Amino acid sequence: MKSYSRTLSAVMAATLVFGAPSLALAKNPMVGGAAMYPTKDIVDNAVNSKDHTTLVAAVKAAGLVETLKGPGPFTVFAPTNAAFKKLPAGTVDTLLKPENKAQLTQVLTYHVVPGRLTAMDIAAKAKANGGKAMLTTVQGEQLTAWKDKAGGWWLTDAKGGKAKITIPNVMQSNGVIHVVDTVLMP
């Protein structure tokens, strides 16, 4: 019971931080119409989300499945299918070609930060750094996490692009996923 209380307290605190009241009581948050289970790894959960079929295809094309099934832990900022559709026409098809595997890998690993960073962790980093959390990605460059005046959390990429965190704290056995509405570019 004590562990459950701590978990519920953490979820509720993260809900206040990221402003997602529907997550406060969700035992298994729904993403893309599918329950996400904290006992499954990042890949095993992502393949069930109808909103992440493009991301899953890209992870497979880049050869990153085994890595993201590994022990991690990883923090993944997972773009939705709609996020990939915002890219210029033909970008996804071009990135998925075998000859562009290195470039695809760079884009995907730019969405991954080593460690398990919950919404509370990101907010604490931001608070300690004047309102912006600098997150170093597996790709090697940084993302900047920040909170807007309405209370929403955003990421800014190296090119100045912005992605909103739409679903925070989707816990996985080997990390955490935060769903984002835009593909970030190194």
UniProtKB/TrEMBL annotation:
Listed InterPro entries: Adhesion/Biosynth-related (IPR050904), FAS1_dom_sf (IPR036378), FAS1_domain (IPR000782)
Membrane-spanning intervals of the chain = none
Q: Which residues form the signal peptide?
A: 1-26
Keyword annotations for this protein, in alphabetical order, are: Signal
* Any one Gene Ontology cellular component term annotated for this protein: extracellular space
Domain FAS1: start-end pairs:
39-184
- What SUPFAM superfamilies does this protein's entry cite? FAS1 domain
Question: Which residues are in coiled coils?
Answer: none
Q: Which Pfam families match?
A: Fasciclin
Q: What is this protein called?
A: Putative surface protein with fasciclin (FAS1) repeats
